[in-house]
# Entry
Amino acid sequence: MLSCLSFSLLFTVSCKERSSTPTFSFKLPEQGQSFGLGDQVKIELDVPEGTKLSSATYLLDGKEVGVKNNAEAISVSTTDLSLGYKLVTAIVDDGAAKDTLTINIELKSAVKPALYGYQIVNTMPHDTSAYIQGLEYHNGRFLESTGQEKHSTLRWVDVKSGKVLQQIKLDDQYFGEGSSLVGDKVIMLTWESHLGLVFDAKSFKQLSTFPYQSSAEGWGLCFDGTQLIKSDGTNKLWFLNKDTYREESAIEVYDNNGPMDSLNELEYIGGKIYANVYTKNIIVVIDPKTGVIEQQIDFSGLLPVDYFKTDNDRANNVLNGIAWDSAGKRLFVTGKKWPKMFEVKLVAKK
# Structure
């Protein structure tokens, strides 16, 4: 049997619990709710009856977007944002205590990519031992990086003949991935070693290494003149400092159907990012500010389907490699262990 004192103590605790700081939550938006890029997002708090707020500060991905001295809702524009998941934060103060609330929303693309095909302008021979991971055009030569365990290389290749002019083999521990020329250095990624490699562009002497930070793996790499852009096999693209190679920001890439995963070899052309989609015969054209896929290029049939004789070879030796000759306005594409390099012209589909 409870004593009167015990009952009194229990009652007192219960009363204190009921009179503690009110519990706030989001009325709008809902957790994980999706919005189209450019939509207005209404943010509204669910405030317990009889409670008044002295202030409410709202942030979107850590940036302040509104302040109220009451529970009045705010509306936030998403026009200048990038795609993907965004963190909505509310810091509320009822005069007695402060509380911080968070919720996630997802910004998706409402843009249906323009569809393109291709015309072959020219074909050049290509080394069929080259498991192409990175490709760039510089002053009449291709800069190529190749992969596979114990066979990864970095090389300069003659455009017309496909002849390897200069080459260095990577240490057996590295599976080579994308590469890009930055000044007098070549920056090259490795796959699962979580390391990037830095080479002298003339001698191919390895100068240093650098670790990845938040990116999952090393896949594709290109240079926009200011930052390096890196893919990691997901729908994310990472922007790296060109001198320290540290990841400074990232965007998530979407088309109108959702996130586009497996972004691979990259090329920066005319202010846009061109990306191979691994195992698919498509290249997507991405707005680097938002992550919106604006165009999709179908390269089906570029290499005869019966060139590779086994299912395993066909599955692995896929379209991969984009190079742009900015002076000659020429676009080149190839694939892993493909016998040809193709100069192509893009053609809009009707």
Notes: Helices lie at 4-18, 311-316. Confidence is low (pLDDT under 50) at residues 1-19. The radius of gyration is 27 Å. The chain is about 5% helix and 55% strand.
